[in-house]
Structures are given as structure tokens and as C-alpha cells.
Specification:
Layout (H helix, E strand, L loop, with lengths): L5 E2 L3 E3 L2 H9 L9 E3 H13 L4 E2 L5 H10 L1 H4 L1
Parallel strand pairs: 1-4, 2-3
Length: 76
């Protein structure tokens, strides 16, 4: 059987910010919580072994999804 999963990472620490600085000459920062690329990869590897519809590698971001269901205007 096939399964589909939506992965919802938050700002992930990668070489992306360094590449922007190198290519365009200015430094950018993501706002909010950060996670490692390894934590996202672990979450994806886990969902391959244990399929489910949604994965939140940064677990607290799941609360935002619940809040958005209960109070969409407030979370926007």
C-alpha cells in the first residue's frame, strides 16, 4: 500500500542562510523556533516505518495546527 504524509517543519538550520549571505551580501535570520536538518530527517525516516497523515518534526508546532482548527482568525 501507498501512504501520503504531509511534513510540517519549522525553520530548519541549513546552509541556506550562509548561501544567501555569500551570494547576495546580506545576512538573514529566520524568526521563531529552529530545528536541525537531522531532526527533520529522523521524523521522515520514522514516518516511513510508521505511516501517518501528518508529521510535525518540531512537536510544539502541532499546537498551532490545533489552535488553527479551533480559532482560525486568531492564529492568522
Amino acid at each position: 500500500g501507498l501512504h501520503a504524509t504531509a511534513v510540517y517543519p519549522v525553520s530548519t538550520a541549513t546552509e541556506f542562510h550562509d548561501a544567501i549571505e555569500r551570494e547576495h551580501g546580506y545576512r538573514v535570520k529566520g524568526l521563531g523556533p529552529k530545528q536541525t536538518a537531522e531532526s527533520v530527517a529522523r521524523a521522515i525516516a520514522d514516518v516511513i516505518e510508521h505511516p501517518r497523515a501528518e508529521v510535525y518534526p518540531y512537536r510544539r508546532s502541532r499546537l498551532l495546527a490545533v489552535a488553527n482548527t479551533l480559532w482560525p482568525a486568531g492564529t492568522d
